[in-house]
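Target protein
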Amino acid sequence: MRFAYLSLAVLALIAAVYQPVMYADFVWVDKICFRNAAWLRYGDGWKELVFHDFYDWVNYFRPLVVALFVAEVRGFDATPGPMHLVSLLLHLLSTLLVGILALRLTKNIGPPRRSMFLSVAAMLLYGLHAALIEPVVWVSCQYELVVTLFMMLGLTLNAVIPRESLRALGVSTCFFLAACAKESAVAFPLLLLLVDWMQLGSASGVENCWGIRSVWRRQRTTYIAVFLGGVAYLALRLWGLGFLVQSAGTEPLFTWARLQTVSFVFLTYWRILVWPMVGLGPLHIVDQRQFATFSPSLLSIDLAAIAIPILGLYLAVKRKPLGILILAITMALLPVLHVIPVDFDMSLYHERYAMTAAAIACALLPRVLTEIAFLQSRLWTMVACAFASIWLAVSVVNIRATLPLWSDEVKLWSWALRQHPGLAVAESHLLAAYGDAHQLESARQVADLLINQSANCSDCMLNVAALAVEDGDLPRLKAALKNIERTLRPPFNPRELQAYVIATGQMHELQGDLQEAIYAYQDAIRLEPLDPMARLDLALLEARQGLPDARKNMEIALSLFTPDQRRRHRAEFEKVVAKSAEPAPASSSPPPRH
């Protein structure tokens, strides 16, 4: 009962530290998926997106979390606050599971009071780990939260359910759900085996070094069920995507550059786990050309990265919990180490990818500490408590300082540009953020930077074009579209292609070629029927012309917007309708853009 009270206190503390998240806005991909497009909010199209093509995915298959997104955006009307609270709740549940698993793994090892306090400390370390700010505050990271939750739930059920059949059912179900949340769940069977091996180390009557037979006798039903759960997931994936994995390209799997890349990323994640207080940010751009060369510093990184899992294996064979901990962290990180040459995105690593590794590390750490002899003394216990307290205090300061940066689009991309000055992609996002915030003078300054850089970036020029339309700046709009035509090549990104067609229609409208503008908007609607912007532009143009279909198209467009956007755009439309009914002035300038 005391553990329950302490756990509630820890969860309340974590919730208080993260309390500002309820006021955070949508940022980055959130705005596209939950606010700008109606893929999940309108009609029945979401049933297809749950299984494939969500946000132009190819190899990703995450139906569980996409279905969760559907429930959230429909249940909360795409309001960010409640969706952020869902993320926080998922994080709190995983934190509780970390404590329960830690308590179970330290049962009957040392004094119960010590085991309880170490388990509570593990909850604090995980719940307030600074590397987890990104997944807790960025709604699109609910993949990380859900896969970690079900992996930790599976390990916990495996440790606490005595009945073999129920244990097998519960663990295999958790594995299947974790896999349906994110592909990194592939590490779960290895983590399950390692945790079983750790529990075996304290069992009496185990004579052989490896204990494989004993583990198999106790867990064979569970392992077979987990295997069948994996087969069921692969069958569902094949049905949903039509394939298991598309080709990763022609880059060789084993190269010197690949070894050095994996080694660098592996050690970086270890640094993030141990001391995440430095280097936090939305982007981590690393010049990977350096990994194709030889240098003493890179060689030392390679040797260290190889030595860590070897040390873990050696200690694990000796039945040392520290060895199990090292191997478990390595297995949890394996899916994100770029071992297979697939480009995730422009960043070489992200803090959010360390979430599952942090959870398993914190759950196993109390067991490791209970078997380190010198920590049993009061002096070393006080030293360890002092270090943990300082670590937690610095981490809390980092969380409260970083939360506002992940809560506002302008602050997020200003932060990214401070870390990576001149990065065109970050400048493009900042330009769009300034436009959404109606900070047009700041937006113009960023647009000038992008034009002067001649950025080879379609998305950048689309944002420049959007600002030019807002300003009625036809020369800048034409220059941006010309740049886009130079960079937009097949296979086309559907979102970029549709945005380009809309911008072309806006150019025709500014030029007075109204029929060509109508054709362009209609083409954009055919490309993406659930994007409201083309319908909005078409409805406003028709309203200016007094055409009868204007109100019909406007009603369709409004149904695709979020509730807060509907009021603004309806008022804009009615204003245009009223103005079009007035007598035309003798001369007029191009119509103002919305």
Summary: Residues 2-196+211-406 form one domain. The longest helix spans residues 212-241.
